[in-house]
Design brief:
Metallo-beta-lactamase, Chain A; four-stranded mixed β-sheet; 24% helix
Length: 224
């Protein structure tokens, strides 16, 4: 695992991942909280050496499954760090009965994070995601809110991105827009995120957006 440091208390790491034959990849984000403990968002597959690397940054205290789809590796991380608290959307309890979920992840920001992170639930859609703004770094941390593929060597994936209108252009693909069933509620959620004063965007699929994030987010959801 290669940890890329984005801020004195924020790191990311990527891993290959395919879905329906598409090579979309995935990204994990690690935030060191004021307590010194770590908050891990959307874990990727980790080896023993990777867990040791995390422990060098601090004890893993919280692991977050931020929506109903980015949950595949949270159980393995929790097993490797037995004192960790798992936070997930309520719907994941039914989808993953094998997981011990300690806290339902809602739009309200838990006290343990509230000094540095603000949570926003993106309502009105089937992705059911909670996104986070880390105020010290001015980073918006998300999974599927925005994708950003400046290049892609895999032909089928490249065709999917072009069809979705997001190849070499950050945004939300047209197929995913179909999952938004209540546009006024979703629009209000996006406006709430835009009010939080972030700059960069950390996302799961594609390249990081280091600056100009509010303009990217507003343009990505102008169809709402």
């Amino acid at each position: 695992m290669h940890l890329e440091q984005l801020h004195e208390d924020v790191w990311t790491a990527t891993a290959a991942q395919t879905m329906f034959g598409l090579h979309l990849g995935t990204r994990m984000t690690v935030v060191r909280l004021p307590s010194g403990g770590l908050w891990v968002h959307s874990p990727i597959p980790l080896e023993a050496a990777d867990h040791a690397q995390l422990r060098e940054l601090g004890p893993v205290e919280h692991v977050v499954a931020p929506n109903l789809y980015h949950h595949l590796h949270v159980g393995h991380l929790a097993q490797a760090h037995p004192d960790v608290q798992l936070h997930a959307r309520p719907g994941l309890r039914k989808k993953r009965p094998d997981l011990v979920i300690h806290h339902d992840l809602q739009g309200e920001t838990p006290t343990a994070w509230s000094k540095v992170l603000t949570s926003v639930h993106i309502e009105g859609n089937m992705l059911d995601e909670v996104v986070f703004v880390h105020h010290p770094s001015r980073l918006l941390i998300s999974c599927d809110l925005v994708e950003n593929f400046t290049t892609c060597p895999h032909l089928l994936t490249r065709l999917y991105l072009r069809m979705g209108g997001i190849y070499q252009k950050p945004g939300l693909s047209r197929p995913l827009r179909l999952l938004f069933r209540d546009r006024p509620r979703a629009r209000a959620s996006v406006e709430r995120v835009l009010s939080l004063g972030f700059d960069g965007i950390v996302l799961s699929h594609g390249d990081l957006i280091p600056e100009g994030g509010p303009d990217v987010l507003a343009a990505s959801y102008s169809w709402l």
